[in-house]
Task: inverse folding
């Protein structure tokens, strides 16, 4: 029963951070409308979120087990709830930046703690991969929910309307409810505690030593590239729908939800499929399919001309097809995270989770900045064609990661 309660709490935490973190795409669009900032300036919101995630993850990863996974999650939930209740009274662009910075810092605590918790409540590698996929699917369900929630509060007729800020009262309340649920859930963290006598400085040294392992290096390259791909598409999809496909702002946001829903479905199915087939074969096939979808969908977008949208049938076919890339990208991130954590001892999961979050955040920030620059100077179609480069690089990186994992396991079996 206690395992079930902590699982439900983790699912809800991930769902809520899916809403907040990936609202950045919606807010990027709204920042251009409400504040009148250019695309390149709006793209810094991604950096405020991701750089904060990276910095906080690096700082706390080596000693988060001393704080405790549960306590760290409680701190993260409380911080975002407070920020959400404050932002509607301020409404400045710098306040929005700070909101994403607080959310990023809190997510660093949540994600490291969640990844560490998975290792505590699962017994086998396949169970670990399966639970990781299901948890990540709830993140995508959160993203999907966020698109519909935010779109409801957007005023298409008045770009200067501050009505969309009131959504944060609702989100703040949900965070408070999640905090209460987590507080009444029990979690045995004894297996994750650091060895007695290990000092903070030694914890950082151990983290750097971990980063020097070829297996870990190959993994962080994969994680960096994946999040670069995902965030460069997801954060800019509402703007792509609005400026390239000529959809109204609220519909642009709702249509972007197709990617979140397809990713959620993909991760749920991956949680079942990866119990039966090789993770490497599955991910390689998925990346090839994702590249093929880009080559099909973008030319369709180029033939779209401005026209009035009255019913869903008026929405261009490209707005339905391109977001399906989420289905094929879906299994990659949870699978590689699970593989690297499964290869390491449980008392290193907190430290490794910190490295996962750091390099994921850096990849997301760089991806959004690059896409924002290309979008502004070369157009949305070119910006989304750019995704083919990191998809190809990730396919190569996965091959190397699989080789490093096999070599690492052989070395440690023999020793």
Result:
């Amino acid at each position: 029963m206690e395992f079930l309660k902590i699982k439900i709490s983790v699912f809800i935490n991930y769902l809520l951070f899916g809403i907040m973190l990936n609202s950045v795409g919606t807010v990027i669009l709204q920042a251009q409308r409400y504040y009148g900032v250019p695309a390149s300036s709006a793209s810094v919101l991604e950096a405020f979120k991701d750089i904060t995630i990276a910095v906080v993850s690096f700082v706390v990863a080596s000693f988060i087990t001393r704080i405790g996974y549960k306590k760290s999650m409680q701190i993260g939930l409380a911080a975002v709830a407070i920020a959400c209740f404050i932002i509607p009274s301020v409404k400045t662009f710098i306040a929005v930046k700070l909101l994403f910075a607080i959310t990023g810092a809190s997510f660093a605590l949540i994600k490291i703690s969640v990844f560490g918790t998975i290792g505590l409540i699962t017994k086998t590698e396949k169970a670990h991969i399966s639970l990781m996929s299901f948890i990540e699917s709830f993140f995508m369900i959160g993203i999907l929910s966020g698109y519909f929630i935010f779109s409801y509060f957007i005023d298409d007729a008045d770009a200067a309307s501050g009505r969309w800020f009131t959504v944060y009262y609702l989100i703040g309340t949900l965070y408070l409810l999640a905090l209460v649920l987590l507080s009444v859930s029990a979690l045995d963290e004894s297996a994750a505690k650091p060895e007695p006598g290990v000092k903070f400085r030694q914890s950082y040294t151990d983290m750097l030593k971990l980063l020097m392992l070829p297996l870990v290096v190959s993994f962080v390259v994969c994680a960096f590239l994946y999040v670069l791909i995902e965030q460069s598409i997801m954060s800019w999809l509402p703007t792509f729908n609005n400026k390239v496909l000529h959809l109204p702002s609220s519909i642009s946001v709702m249509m972007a939800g197709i990617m979140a829903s397809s990713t959620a479905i993909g991760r749920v199915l991956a949680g079942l499929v990866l119990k039966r087939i090789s993770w490497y074969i599955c991910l390689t096939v998925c990346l090839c399919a994702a590249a093929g979808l880009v080559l099909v969908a973008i030319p369709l977008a180029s033939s779209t001309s401005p026209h009035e949208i009255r019913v869903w049938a008026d929405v261009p076919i490209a707005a339905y097809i391109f977001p399906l890339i989420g289905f094929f990208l879906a299994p990659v991130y949870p699978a590689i995270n699970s593989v690297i954590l499964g290869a390491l001892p449980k008392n290193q999961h907190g430290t490794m989770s910190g490295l996962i979050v750091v390099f994921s955040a850096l990849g997301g920030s760089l991806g959004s900045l690059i896409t924002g620059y290309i979008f502004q100077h070369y157009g949305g179609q070119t910006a989304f064609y750019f995704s083919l480069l990191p998809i190809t690089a990730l396919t190569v990186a996965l091959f190397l990661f699989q080789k490093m994992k096999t070599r690492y396991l052989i070395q440690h079996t023999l020793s």
Summary: The chain has a mean pLDDT of 84.
